[in-house]
Design brief:
Two copies of one chain form a homodimer. In chain A, a hairpin with a 4-residue loop joins strand 2 and strand 3. The first copy, chain A, is α+β, with helices and mostly antiparallel strands. The first copy, chain A, has a seven-stranded antiparallel beta sheet with strand order 1-2-3-4-5-6-9. Chain A has eight helices and ten strands. In chain A, helix 3 (125-140) packs antiparallel against helix 5 (184-210) and helix 6 (217-237) packs across helix 7 (239-247). The first copy, chain A, has helices at residues 2-17, 63-68, 125-140, 147-157, 184-210, 217-237, 239-247, 251-254; strands spanning 23-29, 33-41, 46-58, 77-88, 95-106, 109-119, 159-160, 165-166, 171-177, 261-263. Strand 10 (261-263) of chain A pairs antiparallel with strand 10 of chain B, so a sheet runs across the interface.
């Protein structure tokens, strides 16, 4: 399912690029697993895009799982996932990130996890509302889906503590999703499959609106500054990236999430009333699916 | 001493810039301390330069000190330091970093610490040998100075584990330097003062050689890629930066160490035989003060 989704997503993004295509970097580690990195750099629409799948298995449970589930110590496991990152060139088009993953021990012990979040450099209420409504509607189609809880988890996770701001406008974040009842696996699988199918409808209408907008040096400068914050989150905060860096498996695949370029300026504060300054109110938790995205 | 050094260093760097000057950002936190950030951005010679001093004190010892010296639990302390970062514009001129710090409890319990290291994007044997010889000669002038041990500590510290390469060509790193004998404080103070006086002789001759060299887009691209590694080290590895981000004191002063711009490309490998490829052999520990900097 993840590999099929990878092919479909890449085909959709390549349609935006015309001639320029993704390069494939398959990898394999005996005794660990294998994966396929598909990456596009310096495109017309996407300055950097990556879609990775991987499948790993092991004869003993990783320490990070055992810490939360001691009864699984020593059990063999298999895990797989897909992750997606888009850094478009146009500063008005948001960066987009998602991953879906499965972790299995045996027929009774398994779970799914997933994340989808969006990071604009310029805030548009319509974009935020559209993105969150697609996620909300996806969740509503599935018994185990819980948009409100998953949105809250996402807001909390994608926060840069040292800046006291979010990396972007959130989305959904869930983990350890399982269902012990009859047909539970099929229901969770359907939820994940539908989530993967929701990624393009959540993002492409926004890209279609923003990618043609004219911009100049000022907007690129601001975009690079915001991408600096993206780097701060991924390298200094993100548990997944930090775990990947510590275990050392396939650094380039892990760091494909970083933006193509980033910039730091000392104590940069956008002038009051500018479009740049107004981003700040997008970087705090807000009920985006409510009418006009306003707080009650 | 640190504040005097700050003024002298900034005056020296401003002499390179002509009209453009450093902006001052003093800060004060009641009950914690105060400091002065001096920062220059977008200069002719320095794309980003920062010289910070700070002085903090507290009625109870920080946890990080108590962890290593349990007998100091609950003791009041005072600490001060200076840190310096230079990111020159010319890709052939290396980035330069140093800090000196003092930590005091009472007349018998105090120590100095210090770091000086250099991070070139292009390797020059002459630059590395000059830089390390100035540091070696400074250490040799002081009874407590130990260039070989401090170089080894620096090589180990400025390593990016997930890349298995150093951030640059090392330098010196020492901490908890004290001297319980008569006149010990004065001797350590003299060592630190001489270290501060050695920074300009260690760096400026290299800057003088490299800043006038012609360069183009290719060299800027490579410089930004190397600065990406600098960011990876500072945000994901550096204990000082991570401690600062976690405690949240004056984020902008902490992150002034980051380069002005950075770039990430997927699995970038410079072509064999290029100047970019030859940097790799500079990013491993080497005995730079030996003739021609070659290994035995």
């Amino acid at each position: 399912m993840f590999c099929d989704a990878q092919d479909r997503l890449v085909a959709a993004f390549e349609a935006y690029e015309g001639a320029r295509g993704f390069q494939a970097a398959p990898w394999q580690r005996p005794g660990l697993g294998s994966g396929r990195v598909l990456v596009l750099e310096d495109g017309e629409v996407f300055e950097r895009a990556g879609v990775n799948t991987s499948r790993v298995s092991g004869s003993t449970m990783p320490a990070s799982v055992v810490a939360k589930a001691p009864h699984l110590e020593g059990a063999p496991f298999t895990a797989g996932g897909i992750s997606l990152i888009l850094h478009p060139r146009n500063p008005y088009a948001p960066s987009f990130h998602a991953n879906f993953r499965f972790f299995g021990v045996d027929a009774d012990t398994w779970w799914f996890g997933g994340v989808c979040d969006m990071s604009p450099s310029y805030g548009f209420e319509d974009d935020a509302a559209h993105f969150h409504r697609v996620l909300r509607d996806w969740c509503a189609r599935h018994r185990a889906g819980d948009y409100e809880a998953w949105k809250q988890a996402c807001d909390a996770y994608f926060t840069i503590p040292h800046r006291q701001e979010m990396r972007g406008i959130g989305g959904i974040f869930f983990d350890h999703l399982t269902d012990p009842e009859d047909g539970g696996f099929e229901r969770c699988l359907a939820l994940a499959a539908d989530g993967l199918d929701s990624l393009l409808p959540a993002y492409l209408p926004i890209l279609d609106r923003r990618a043609p907008m004219p911009y100049g040096e000022r907007e690129r400068h601001w975009q690079e500054t915001r991408r600096g914050r993206y780097v701060e989150f991924n390298l200094a905060v993100d548990r997944g990236t930090r775990f990947g860096l510590e275990t050392g498996a396939n650094i380039e695949a892990i760091l494909v999430s970083l933006p193509p370029r980033a910039r730091w300026s000392f104590d940069l504060r956008p002038g009051p009333g500018t479009a740049e300054a107004s981003l700040a109110r997008f970087l705090q938790p807000r009920p985006w699916t409510h009418p006009a995205g306003h707080d009650a």
